[in-house]
Design a protein that fits this description.
Strand order of the largest sheet of chain A: 1-2
Oligomer: homodimer
Radius of gyration of chain A: 20 Å
Largest interface: A-B, 38 and 38 residues
CATH class of the largest domain in chain A: Mainly Alpha
Number of strands of chain A: 2
């Protein structure tokens, strides 16, 4: 069993209980069900690893992991309302089954319970953890707003997209790691490098996600390949293609974005390939992965303690390799 | 100037600044505007009074007041989405102007900023304040869920309604007072009595609100009188009327609830009066006010320090007298 699997299992054992009171069941039961339909628990594992870097796991690190997992699930429930998504992890979303008001309120109470878990750690660390967590929570909301704003814009620059995706996705990974480290009383400098490891890893992960949506193996990807292209999403790939393509090719790409044709995905992919977008994305991903690993190197613990995080970085990034 | 007005003014001076970053303006500007369209700031004043009971105002009591005001406004923004309300305090609601996704996300980020304000108090009090605040926040969500559930029920008992309204309204008033007292390092027993003062006062306030919706002076009430009757809301009055009315009168009341006729409000009020519901409600309100004041008496500070809270209780309850 790898270090990741070990921590995933330990987290599941800890997390596998009711998080909410029994009543009102109309509010709480949908949330319990949603939480049990687990994802990969990446964020809790990051938090535990951030703590384990410095020695034996602090028992309270599980509380912080739970807080992050609840916060993450709160964002999923609310994002699904905003996106009017019918499915999540292959199952109907909370609002699709129980209505928007209950999903909205359920998300709210899930966030409160996240704060409840944070409040279980020793008070010496509480202020510092809350400061980081609140900053991150605000950024995640900002990222979601920017994502919605971008849908209405004709043109989004790579820099703007990078900022949006950093807020929406990466900072929570970074925060998870740093929260674990705060509880281990890590130095400010180590905390900074750990945060930056997570932030850069998150960006690499998103580049890969965008890449796989276009070029992934349908059997391995788990989602419909080409979904981003079908819905004209401004991804790393599309933004760079619009900045790179010239003349007729640019015109064709712009026209393809205005229509729905059976061969749309195929034709856009053709343009992506001919502009070298696939290779560019692969290199960009590696660039962020390298940045992440460099920050990890700068952390003042022995190399063998870092093996779990290196393993996790490759697990997250190389899933199609 | 009364003690209430003095604290309202001091709070406004403290609160009158931006609470959110400038960007993204699409997310934050609607919230700044919503917060500036102030209500009576009752909850912040309660928090300040709960603190002032024990001596000079602790400067950090303003942070806790702001947290409560932000939390309260977060619930308003989200409740308005759930209720599909077009207006709030005479102005269009956030979702009506900016769409549901932004209102949803705006509410979320307002709650996070509430926690940010709490995190500014000395760490010695942080855990205790958070525990109370989290418990209350969960209860407020539960109250809103029960309120929505009750709309679909044919029959709601007085006990069930009382529980719902306690959660939805009263506990936040109680929490506001107790948070101020925690910051003043008040004894557990005093905290309990102060909380119970607020909880009972909140119930009395709600009984009055239900009463005024039916029997209030339209010029003074500020809302359309009879609104609850028109929308068949199960209020203190309606629940008790359905439990009290007999024979033909009960039948008429039940029929009136199934239809919309021009004289509906008038006829329901006639039944309310003939069953003595108006007097019953007035007595019930006084009963809860007395309970509240009894708890206030039990608090171990000199009587003259309590004058502000007594003033506030009468200000809240006697607004139509």
């Amino acid at each position: 069993m790898t270090g990741i699997e070990k921590l995933q299992q330990e987290f599941e054992v800890y997390f596998n209980h009711r998080h909410f009171p029994a009543s009102p069941a109309t509010l709480y039961d949908p949330l319990e069900l949603f939480l049990s339909n687990s994802g990969k628990r990446i964020r809790p594992v990051l938090c535990l690893m951030g703590n384990e870097l410095y020695g034996d796991l602090h028992p309270d690190a599980f509380h912080l992991s739970a807080a992050i997992e609840l916060f993450h699930n709160f964002t999923l429930v609310h994002d699904d309302i905003m996106d009017k998504a019918p499915l999540r992890r292959g199952k109907p979303t909370v609002h699709a089954v129980h209505g928007e008001p209950t999903a909205l309120l359920g998300g709210d109470v899930m966030m409160v319970v996240a704060y409840d878990y944070i409040n279980r750690i020793p008070s010496t660390f509480l202020q510092e953890v809350l400061q980081l967590f609140n900053k991150t929570a605000k950024e995640v909301c900002e990222g979601q707003q920017l994502d919605m704003d971008f849908e209405k814009l004709e043109k989004v620059s790579l820099e703007e997209y990078l900022n949006m995706i950093t807020l929406k996705t990466s900072v929570l990974l970074a925060c998870s790691l740093q929260m674990g480290a705060i509880l281990a009383d890590a130095s400010k400098e180590d905390q900074y490098h750990l945060y930056e490891f997570g932030r850069n890893l998150g960006i690499a992960f998103q580049i890969q996600d965008d890449y796989l949506d276009a070029f992934g193996d349908p059997d391995k990807f788990g989602k419909q390949v080409g979904g981003d292209i079908q819905s004209n999403k401004k991804t790393f790939l599309m933004i760079h293609a619009l900045e790179t393509a010239q003349g007729n090719q640019l015109q064709e790409l712009q026209q393809l974005m205005l229509m729905q044709s059976p061969d749309k995905v195929e034709r856009v992919l053709g343009i992506f390939r001919s502009c070298g977008i696939d290779q560019w994305a692969d290199e960009l991903k590696d660039e962020y992965l390298s940045k992440a690993l460099l920050h990890l190197e700068n952390i003042s613990v022995s190399k063998d303690r870092k093996s779990g995080l290196i393993e996790l970085a490759y697990y997250l990034i190389k899933r199609d390799k």
